[in-house]
Amino acid sequence: MISLKTNRFPALVSLPMLGTLAILAGLGSSDARDVSLPETVTIEAGSFQYRSSGEYLEGGHAVDAPMAEVTFDRPFEIMKYQVTVGDYERCVAQAVCEPRLNQGLDAANLPVTGVSHADATTYAKWFERQTGRSWRLPTDEEWAYAAGGRFVDDAVNADRDPENPAARWLAMYQKFADLETGADPVLKPAGAYGTNERGVFDMSGNVWEWTDSCYRRSRIEPDGSETLIANNCGVRIAAGQHRSYVTFFIQDAKGGGCMVGAAPDYLGFRLVAGTPVGPIRRLLNNLGWHQRS
Amino acid sequence: MLTRRNALKSAVFTSLAAGALVETVAAQTEESMTPVGEPVDLSTLERRKVTLVAPPFVHEHEQATKAKPAVIEFEMTIVEKEMEIDDEGTMLQAMTFDGSVPGPLMVVHEGDYVELTLINPETNSMPHNIDFHAATGGLGGGALTLINPGEMTVLRFKASRPGTFVYHCAPGGPMIPWHVVSGMSGAIMILPRDGLKDHNGKPVSYDTAYYIGENDFYIPKDADGQYMRFEDPGSSYSDTIEVMNRLIPTHVVFNGRVGALTGDNALKSKVGETVLFIHSQANRDSRPHLIGGHGDLVWETGKFNNPPERDLETWFIRGGSAGAALYTFLQPGVYAYVNHNLIEAVNLGATAHVVVDGDWDNDLMAQVTAPKAIDAAHVSTKALP
Asked: Which pLDDT value is given to residue A96?
């Protein structure tokens, strides 16, 4: 067991500045807020046991990722529901967001799907302008913590067989085959998958959610410590019934062929709230500055 | 008054050159349509009944046989039914031989007589028939087997040429391609009586035979880009023809649907086991490839009187033919059996998986260095090429 203490809460603005900024942030904010604030759920500070993301090698062989203790020193707010088609289309209508992949799923109350990590990030920036609060994609750790009992452990639990590299591969294939059994391709309106014990809706339904976490490959050393070999942010984690590692510009990750293993049914997202936006950032926002990643 | 079914029937009949012939038969149901010829006495031959099984599996059979040529009896019921062709709820008004897409693989030996009882139940809406590429004369049997809903017929043909051959429905005119791309095709394998032989004429055998039937589907989309769903085959016709005539399939699949042979339904084998993959495509060219494996012996055109090719990476299946590839698995793992037009394999569905158990052979392959950071010796000091 490896203990990895992390504080994933992002540093946005320094605390002493907050009071001043709050006052400034109130000024002129009504112009910016043409979208009402979404319902969020506050996830309390705390610790949990977490199956690390990414690929782990031990003695040159792929192994299950180790468990880690992850601690959140502060609470964070996450959207109660996934961003919907109606929400996303407002951003498209303002020519900020890219059109989503046409999957013919247009009802405004459906979760938005057919969006890439890049699309989700663009939406977050736009939403920040609309609401006067900063918004971003959750990290994989935050998503897992907010998912609570809905988080699915992706350990393969294969007997380690250093003589046979195919053994783990076959076990993983079976695990994914089991996961795919009972997959439901029909998109359901926001809320249909119900709430978890934290009051967050629709986690681990058939819409996977983009996180901001990158695809990492690490080595477990003989002393049990971890060495990061590669951190590839061209590939991000989509969280859901299982973790998927998806290239950032992909809007629909369904597929077969060489990519043996289960793919997400649909790609969507929800956002985590940050602090109110400071005056300089607000000014830039109001001048139309936004980053398309 | 014309019901839809009647309207469809008449549409078919007018498109048939042999329309008049069909009406005659309807009037004299007990008569055979076979033109007058020397009578053949098969009464001394043994008769054996074979129960067909749904693909990718193949009914039990001898590979080489000491038995004398026999009459092998098969029975197939034509079933029109709606089938899901992917994981996203896309539906096809399918027409099937014996309820499966593709139809079942039939196996006999050279010199046997194939005797097929073909049934078109009253619940169907259209006339159907069967054209065996393995059969000689009578449009492959198509001219003698056209039956309406509520009718049945028995066709006998001699399995005179050894090989793998396509069969399909061919009810005349534009009905032919439509019935085929709606699922009505399958294959028959006629084995040499002394079994398969390698390039040197030495007997070879297999532990398992899998039949991979490939289909191209053409599902119309509505104005919103959603795949359309139809009440019955007839109402899907005009929209489907429009997509078909553009020659770009919306789905290219093995065994009737995207993912039919992956996950829990993946094909199984073991290191040291020899598998015969029989691949048919009744309408369109294909190019099977086993990722991580090979074709040890490949009858690309499927005809066993020709010596097999060896060590192939990819083999070509001409539209309207069936081929066979023999392979002994040497390494455990997951193999993808694909149509190596990779767009069709990955995006349109033409992928199967073979899950192979056994011991790893480090001589054939090893990971010498697990992925790690690029080391000093390999950091380029020159500009990248």
From this structure: 95
Residues in Cβ contact with A58 at an 8 Å cutoff, skipping those fewer than 6 apart: A219, A220
A259 pLDDT above the threshold of 70: no
What pLDDT does A205 receive?
Answer: 94
Q: Let me know: does A177 contact A265? Beta carbons within 8 Å.
A: no
Please tell me which residue, B299 or A277, carries the higher pLDDT value: B299
Residue A133, Cα to own-chain centre: how many angstroms? 19
E strand or H helix at B4, and its extent? Answer: helix B4-15
**pLDDT above 70: percentage of residues in chain B:** 90
Mention every residue, 6+ apart, whose C-beta is less than 8 A from residue A244: A208, A237, A238, A253, A262, A263, A264
Instruction: Give the 3-state secondary structure of residue A13.
Output: coil
Q: List, in sequence order, every residue forming a beta bridge with B211; answer none if it has no partner.
A: B278
Residue B21: is its pLDDT beyond 60? Answer: no
A212 vs A263, which has greater pLDDT?
A: A212
Lowest mean pLDDT among A97-101, A135-139, A142-146, B246-250: A97-101
Q: What is the Rg, in whole angstroms, of the alpha carbon atoms belonging to chain B?
A: 23
Per-residue DSSP letters for B262-304? SGGG-EEEETT-EEEEEEEESSS-B-EEEET--EEEEETT-BT
Residues in chain A: 293
What gap in Å lies between CA A110 and CA B236, rounded to an integer?
Answer: 29
Number of C-beta neighbours around residue B174 at 10 A: 15
pTM: 0.82
Interaxial angle between packed helices A18-26 and A279-286, expressed in degrees from 0 to 180 and rounded to the nearest 10: 30
Answer whether A164 sits within 8 Å of B360, measured CB to CB: yes
Prior bond to A138 cis, omega within 30? no
For the beta carbon of residue B250, count every other beta carbon within 10 angstroms: 18
Lowest mean pLDDT among A148-152, A169-173, B36-40, B256-260: B36-40
Q: Are B141 and B130 in contact (CB under 8 A)?
A: yes
- For B365, the closest chain A residue by CA position comes to A165
Q: Do A181 and B264 touch (CB under 8 A)?
A: yes
Task: With CB atoms and an 8 Å threshold, state whether B263 touches A258.
Answer: no
Which of B322, B319, B302 lies closest to B163 in space, CA to CA?
B302
Tokens matching residue B166: 């396509």
pLDDT of B299 > 70? The answer is: yes
Give the residue from B90, B250, B258, B264 with the most A CB atoms within 10 Å of its CB, the best one to mutate. Answer: B264
**DSSP output for A198-229:** TS-BSTTSSEEEEEEEEEEEEEE-TTS-EEEE
Is residue A199 a contact partner of residue A227, using CB atoms and an 8 Å limit? no
Residues present in chain B in total: 385
Query: How many angstroms separate the CA atoms of B296 and B274, rounded?
Result: 10
Alpha-carbon span A236 to A250, nearest angstrom: 10
* Sign of the alpha-carbon dihedral angle for B247, B250, B254, B256: negative
Query: ipTM for the complex?
Result: 0.75
Chain position carrying tokens 């499966």: B100
Q: What is the distance in angstroms between the Cα of B21 and the nearest Cα belonging to chain A?
A: 48
CA distance A284 to chain B (A): 38
